[in-house]
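Revision sheet: structure tokens.
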Amino acid sequence: MWTRRMFRIGEYIQGLRATPSEQLKAIVQEKRYPVLLREAALRWLVHLAPVEVTKGAPFAVRRRLVRQHHRV
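Predicted:
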């Protein structure tokens, strides 16, 4: 069962798929954007990060490593 929150984050993820990494980084850093949009942008940053940054770790660890790498 999809909740409204799950549906909205799915829309944000779909909408950000063609966005360059630098713009995704700017979205994650800006507090004026909604939390779900920033979360979707961070998911794309994690997805696009090279293996040298993520080290093949599980998603939660990869997310922390990407945040440290991009300083967001």
